[in-house]
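Fold this sequence, please.
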Amino acid sequence: MSSTRALAAGYLAAQAVAVPVWWTGLAVSPSFRRRFELGDPAVLDSFARGDVVLALTSAAAAVLVRAGHPAAAPVAGVVTAVVGWSTVRTLRCAAASRSGGLGVAAMTAATAGSALARALAR
């Protein structure tokens, strides 16, 4: 496997693990959760379903990239679309609540990382 594909697969695998770890942190640590709140606590919770999709598609893309499968780049593109949508939504919610700057930074980085992984998966 090329080093660029290995980098892409590694990033996608790390993202697949990081998402549920992040949600676990939110669940067990109120002080950690406060850093990411977007006003009403229900707003942050509304991202959970999309994050399940993000974790699952990231894991699938990592496996496909590692295997050199022809579907790797398209699936990594789905990952980028899912995280990009969540990033735009986070930006909108943060602007409305005037909070959540850390979440905006994290989501922007995740979108950039996913887009780079997609580019490297080709």
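The radius of gyration is 15 Å. Helices lie at 3-28, 30-34, 41-45, 48-67, 72-97, 101-121.
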